[in-house]
């Protein structure tokens, strides 16, 4: 991925959310009607074609055959994080989204208009997002966009200068990022959060099982996913061992509250007997600053 450009996997994930938004409301697992705003022209054509149920079903079948577990995993993960965010919104006055990319929760989740939302990302990514929102008739003023160049800028002072209340309780969302970093960058981010968040703050983050990366565990769809992300130049580079996560977080002043595999979430969300394969290697974790 080039600095400041959207990633190919982010584009694909937006397509998966856009396709889900084309499903009838009664069977929709996650609802992101704004995802289509961020699609490339070719992906937008696919999403528009999906307005016709036979075309949508054909697209879903092709995608699921080519990338097993990927589409249902993105859909289930979106639904799970949506639920976690909404459950906690009443406890905080500020939300921070790290590496926000194409996240649309500030515009579509009830209650987000009652808190201050800060999105931290590369300035070029944020400029492209704001243009897409404008084309879709959505006000970018809903969010405080905080531009940073990761690995160059110190996010703490930049956030403080933007109005983020250091030391106050906050809800932090860090989705779809840790698996593209190295351990040093993940450690540094948790250290940063521990230093600037108030006690009781919540951090929701995603990660992949380290066994997927080193081959010590076998997961359905894992090898296809690993090949696909390598092919587009965005390989998975980091994962946690789930059993080691509580101790890792405790050493950085966080307490693990929940850790759910996306495959388990999918089984809860999809009707009994109709759940497509979803990734057991992908996790959504919730932690609290002590």
Q: Supply the helix-strand structural class.
A: alpha/beta
- Number of H- or I-type helical stretches: 12
Q: Which CATH first-tier class of the largest domain would you pick?
A: Alpha Beta
Provide the low-confidence segments as ranges. Answer: none
Helix % is 40-55%
CATH architecture term of the largest domain: 3-Layer(aba) Sandwich
Beta fraction: 5-15%
Number of strands: 7
- What's the CATH topology name of the largest domain? Rossmann fold
- Tally of structural domains: 2
Global geometry? globular
CATH superfamily of the largest domain: Vaccinia Virus protein VP39
Distance between the ends = 35 Å
**C-alpha Rg (nearest Å):** 18 Å
List keywords for this structure.
about 290 residues, alpha/beta, Rossmann fold, seven-stranded mixed β-sheet, 12 helices, 7 strands, about 15% strand, globular
Description:
- There is one protein chain.
- It is built from 12 helices and 7 strands.
- It is globular and about 50 Å long.
- It has 290 residues and is of the alpha/beta class.
- It starts with 7 loop residues before the first helix and ends with a strand.
């Amino acid at each position: 991925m080039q600095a400041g450009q959207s990633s190919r996997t982010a584009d694909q994930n937006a397509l998966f959310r856009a396709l889900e938004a084309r499903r009838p409301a009664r069977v929709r697992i996650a609802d992101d009607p704004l995802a289509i705003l961020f699609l490339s022209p070719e992906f937008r054509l696919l999403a528009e074609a999906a307005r016709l149920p036979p075309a949508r079903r054909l697209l879903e079948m092709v995608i699921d055959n080519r990338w097993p577990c990927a589409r249902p995993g993105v859909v289930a993960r979106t639904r799970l994080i949506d639920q976690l965010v909404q459950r906690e919104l009443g406890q905080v006055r500020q939300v921070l989204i790290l590496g926000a990319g194409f996240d649309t929760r500030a515009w579509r989740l009830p209650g987000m208009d009652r808190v201050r939302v800060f999105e931290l990302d590369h300035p070029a990514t944020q400029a492209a997002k704001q243009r897409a929102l404008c084309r879709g008739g959505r006000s970018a003023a809903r969010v405080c966009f905080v531009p940073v160049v990761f690995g160059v800028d110190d996010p703490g002072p930049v956030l403080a200068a933007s109005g983020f209340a250091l030391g106050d309780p906050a809800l932090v969302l860090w989705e779809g990022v840790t698996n593209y970093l190295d351990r040093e960058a993940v450690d540094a981010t948790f250290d940063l959060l521990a230093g600037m968040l108030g006690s009781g703050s919540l951090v929701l983050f995603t990660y992949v099982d380290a066994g997927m990366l080193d081959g010590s565990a076998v997961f359905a769809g894992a090898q296809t996913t690993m090949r696909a992300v390598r092919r587009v130049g965005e390989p998975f580079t980091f994962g946690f061992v789930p059993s080691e996560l509580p101790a890792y977080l405790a050493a950085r002043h966080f307490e693990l509250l929940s850790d759910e595999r996306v495959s388990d979430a999918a089984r809860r969300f999809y009707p009994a007997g109709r759940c497509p394969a979803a990734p057991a290697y992908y996790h959504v974790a919730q932690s609290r600053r002590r």
